Amino acid sequence: MTGRWLALALGSLSIAAGGPRTASAQSSEPLDHWNTNAVLAALQALRVADIQSTTSEGRAAVTGRTRDDLNVGVYAKACDPAPPGVDALCHGLEAIISFDPGARVDRKALVDRLNHQFALGKFLDEPDGTVRLTRYVVFDGGVTPGNLRAELSSLFAIGALTTQTLWPDAARR
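Given the sequence above, the corresponding structure tokens read:
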């Protein structure tokens, strides 16, 4: 077996060997709607700190700080109407990381550049002077807990790269 094929085979074996341990630690059933416990588990698996579960405008939300010290909020979205006191059935989530690039920055140009540079999420120029990175996940057809972790992990990675784009001098320290 050539080195390349051996590496692929060993890589596949290690992925397969890791699968059952992950599956036994938590349910691998696909999520077809917002589930606060599943979001909490995904954030804990990604080593998010200061995790808080709250309600925002009558909808579930979970906040915390990533390993790169970024504030993240994960919010239930696309919710069916529900009477007061009853949890709404929500069919999506939005994960948000905000950045303050400073007053002297042309935020519109920055947002255009970031949206071109990083296609994973959407960058928005917010009225409060911040730049928001947002990622929307729809539970249509079911999202596995592993896929939810992958979606959030990718967003966190783009968040970390964004800080390097905004503050390149700090990244060199």
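Residues 46 and 169 are 27 Å apart (CA to CA). Try to locate this feature in the token string yourself.
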